[in-house]
Design a protein that fits this description.
Keywords: Cell membrane, G-protein coupled receptor, Membrane, Olfaction, Receptor, Sensory transduction, Transducer, Transmembrane, Transmembrane helix. This is Olfactory receptor. By secondary structure, the protein is mainly α. It has 2 domains: 39 residues; 307 residues, Rhodopsin 7-helix transmembrane proteins (Rhopdopsin 7-helix transmembrane proteins, Up-down Bundle). The protein is 78% helix and 3% strand. It contains 12 helices and 3 strands; from the N terminus they run H-H-E-H-H-E-H-H-H-E-H-H-H-H-H. Strands 2-1-3 form a 3-stranded mixed β-sheet. Helix 3 packs parallel to helix 11, helix 5 packs parallel to helix 9 and helix 7 runs antiparallel to helix 9. The longest helix has 34 residues. The protein is globular.
Length: 348
């Protein structure tokens, strides 16, 4: 289209070579960008490519162990909360969905990273990168919102115990979880559009172990500032707003228990709230560093640790903090293991 325009202008302004030169100078970079943009059909995930072979082998063993542990713990929680009738309460309903989100979250990024630690080919297709980024957005946003709803559930249970069953009914819990998933799905579409709205005509090396939006946007043609600003504004809504709700909920919980429990009960509640807040702070601050910081302050050595923190460390810590320290969950695990042992004995 632009080539035809340039030819027609050349015929029209034969006596004005200066005009033709100025127009060609203006249009040429855009034509080059379009040609180059069409050639970017895949990305290269640098990840830990520059590490030594012994370091990659050590990282592979470490991340495989962490991934297996996270999958086993979250899978056990999903099975228990969805099959044990004694865990029929909103808290365990939310815990089961949190574990399911964690399984989806780590499966989206970690298996690919493990493969790239042992093979030399680190390329991913354009569609694969787009799909992975959407899943990370969708599940990550849904988990952010669900953590806020879980904090509100604890607040109602502790501060308004007499009205708890009425406020947190089964229908309300289902609506809250559906809301988290809905915002995750819709928000993923919006962030995906912001990330891939421009063509790609620059370096296709992604300095991370998965397709992270700010890094991918920086590789696109044109000015990426609009997309980065929109992602920043979106992060304020999906990261800061739930985090504020979580902090307010736990602050009211702590204020409520200070004057009405014994010293031992107070210490236990403080310990539980501190554990929950620690995991939440790790998850939200690492995600905020990735999506709310100026790109000038980023670098491979800074991005990877924070990406690992919210993609694998937090999903592994959630079962330990939220579930395995709970007496009812321990009892459910014992009953589940007892049923499994009994079934195996009967089969023999």
């Amino acid at each position: 289209m632009r080539l035809q325009t340039l030819d027609s202008l050349n015929k029209k302004f034969k006596a004005s070579p200066v005009v033709i030169y100025l127009i060609s100078v203006h249009l040429a970079p855009q034509m080059v960008d379009l040609r180059n943009g069409s050639t970017v059909t895949e990305f290269i995930l640098v990840g830990f490519e520059q590490s030594s072979s012994s370091t990659r082998a050590l990282l592979f063993a470490l991340f495989l162990a962490l991934y297996s542990l996270a999958m086993a713990m979250n899978g056990l929680i999903i099975f228990i909360t969805w099959t044990d009738p004694r865990l029929n309460s909103p808290m365990y309903f939310f815990l089961g969905h949190l574990s399911f989100l964690d399984v989806c979250f780590i499966t989206t990024t970690i298996p690919q990273m493990l493969i790239h630690l042992v093979v030399k080919n680190h390329t991913v297709s354009f569609v694969s990168c787009l799909t992975q980024m959407y899943l990370v957005f969708c599940v990550g946003v849904a988990e952010c919102i669900l953590l806020a709803f879980m904090a509100y559930d604890r607040y109602v249970a502790i501060c308004h115990p007499l009205s708890y069953a009425q406020i947190m009914s089964r229908q309300v819990c289902v609506k809250l979880v559906s809301t988290a998933w809905f915002f995750g799905l819709i928000n993923g579409i919006f962030l995906e559009y912001m990330s891939f709205r421009n063509p790609f005509c620059r370096d296709n090396h992604i300095e991370n172990f998965f397709c992270e939006a700010p890094i991918v946007i920086a590789l696109s043609c044109g000015d990426p500032q609009f997309s980065l600003k929109m992602i920043f504004a979106d992060a304020i809504v999906v990261l800061l707003s739930p985090m504020v709700l979580i902090v307010i909920s736990y602050a009211r919980i702590l204020a409520s228990i200070l004057g009405r429990t014994s010293s031992s009960g107070r210490g236990k509640t403080f310990s539980t709230c501190a554990s929950h807040l620690t995991v939440v702070i790790f998850f939200y601050t690492s995600a905020m560093f990735s999506y709310m910081n100026p790109r000038s302050t980023h670098g491979p050595d800074k991005d990877k640790p924070f990406s690992l923190l919210y993609t694998i460390i937090t999903p592994m810590c959630n079962p330990i903090i939220y579930s395995f320290r709970n007496k009812e969950m321990k009892g459910a695990m014992v009953r589940a293991l007892g049923r499994t042992s009994l079934a195996q004995a009967e089969s023999i």
